[in-house]
UniProtKB/TrEMBL annotation:
Ca(2+) binds at residues 134, 208, 210, 242. Pathway: Amino-acid degradation; L-phenylalanine degradation; acetoacetate and fumarate from L-phenylalanine: step 6/6. Belongs to the FAH family. It comes from the Eukaryota. Keywords: Calcium, Hydrolase, Magnesium, Metal-binding, Phenylalanine catabolism, Tyrosine catabolism. Its EC number is 3.7.1.2. This is Fumarylacetoacetase.
Length: 411
């Protein structure tokens, strides 16, 4: 798909993408929805106000009013057919041979009002997040954790293959990529074998490479979303880093799980990639050997996404290096199954709710999605970060770092 707007060949924001986010600018401080296209953004509020959707057959004026809101929550709630229609129309608008050149291509006043370089705007959280739930769907990661605590024979808990395990996170501390986070303080055991905790800054701050998903169409309280219809409740996806204070977590997690070890910050990417844009990346998920309950049984086998994921690290001293590579296909549970399980109790999911996949790790060297296994004394699980990186020789000083992490999703 060629565009009349110059788009760099390796741009993440091609016409095949059209991700949604929230921007502000020096001349207009109000937050508003936008899409990314090449090295530019299209201000959807300005575009809609200027009649940009006037030629869209399947996008009504009422639909377009959703872009006057500070976040895409109202747009998300309109449902996937509207998302699909808007994305398709915006692709048409930017095509080199667009059927509607008068809308934007040849409309200088609207281009000036709505189209600007991405370098001129600030990015914000892409949704108003009402609730956040983090799943544990990465089986390789779950197995690795289980080996450390219970040994290989009992690595996975009996319930793991029967339901998507999850816990409720803290929506208030979800932040957009680039937001600095304060190193958390908490109680932790000062040394192996210690029985009394000390109060200190976290000495084992960890990352967790995840994908996040935003809910679009809500379900009513008491009315579960079925697994066959769950795709209609999915707006799109982000990259996610669920920061974890491992030493604090180790002391506090019994019996109810992590608390302060997880509530201080979760970072997500600024742009949400629509579910339709990732349809070509569907693939078969990991095999589940148990007979699932009917409410979790899916009709299609290509139920997860084969998205290549990378983590790079730039320590305060040293060069940036890629420390892990994996794929989003390393999930035992699909997003529709997560939606179905989350709502089967009657829980109502709302537009803008965030669901995390859980840490995504592969089963080979260089594919782990967190540091936990580097910190753990031998015997360790056999998955490691990629060799010959600055991380491999300096991780033991991690408590003194001010590191910068970069998470990437690749074609």
């Amino acid at each position: 798909m060629k565009s009349w707007l110059p788009i760099p060949p390796r741009s993440h924001f091609s016409l095949l993408n059209i991700p949604f986010g929230v921007i502000s600018s020096k001349d207009k401080h109000a937050h508003r929805p936008a899409i990314a296209i090449g090295e530019h953004i299209l201000d959807l509020d300005a575009f809609a106000t200027g009649g940009g959707f006037s030629k869209a057959a399947n996008v009504s004026s009422e639909h377009a009013k959703a872009f006057s809101q500070p976040t895409p929550n109202a747009f998300a709630e309109l449902g996937r057919p509207v998302h699909r229609a808007v994305r398709s129309y915006l692709q048409e608008i930017f095509l080199n041979d667009t059927p509607h050149p008068d809308v934007l291509k040849d409309n200088e006043s609207l281009r000036k009002a709505a189209l600007r370089p991405i370098s001129e705007v600030s990015m914000h959280l892409p949704f108003a997040i009402g609730d956040y739930t983090d799943f544990f769907a990465g089986r390789n990661h779950a197995h690795n954790v289980g080996v450390l605590f219970r040994g290989p024979a009992n690595a996975l808990q009996p319930n793991y293959s029967h339901l998507p395990v999850a816990y409720h996170g803290r929506a208030s501390s979800v932040v957009v990529s680039g937001t600095p986070l304060r190193r958390p303080w908490g109680q932790a055991l000062p040394a192996p074998g210690a029985t009394e905790p000390v109060f200190r800054p976290c000495a084992r701050l960890d990352i967790e490479l995840e994908m996040g998903m935003f809910i679009s169409k809500p379900n009513d309280l008491g009315s579960p979303a079925s697994v066959k219809d769950a795709d209609e409740h999915i707006f799109g996806y982000v990259l996610m880093n669920d920061w974890s204070a491992r030493d604090i977590q180790q002391w506090e997690y019994v019996p109810l799980g992590p608390f302060n070890a997880k509530n201080f910050g979760t970072t997500i990417s600024a742009w949400v990639v629509l579910a339709d844009a990732l349809e070509p990346f569907r693939t078969k998920g990991l095999e589940n050997e148990v007979q699932l309950q009917k409410y979790l049984q899916e009709s299609r086998s290509d139920n997860v996404l084969d998205i290549k994921l990378e983590v790079s690290l730039a320590p305060s001293e040293g060069e940036k290096s890629t420390i892990t590579r994996t794929s989003a296909r390393n999930l035992l549970w699909s997003w529709p199954q997560m939606v179905a399980h989350h709502s089967i109790s009657g829980c109502n999911l709302c537009a803008g709710d965030l669901l995390g996949s859980g840490t995504i790790s592969g089963d080979e060297a260089g594919t782990v999605g967190c540091h936990k296994f580097v910190y753990t004394p031998p015997p360790r699980v056999p998955t490691r970060f990629l060799p010959n990186t600055s991380f491999s020789s300096t991780y033991h000083n991690f408590s003194k770092w001010r590191p910068k992490y970069m998470l990437f999703a690749l074609e």
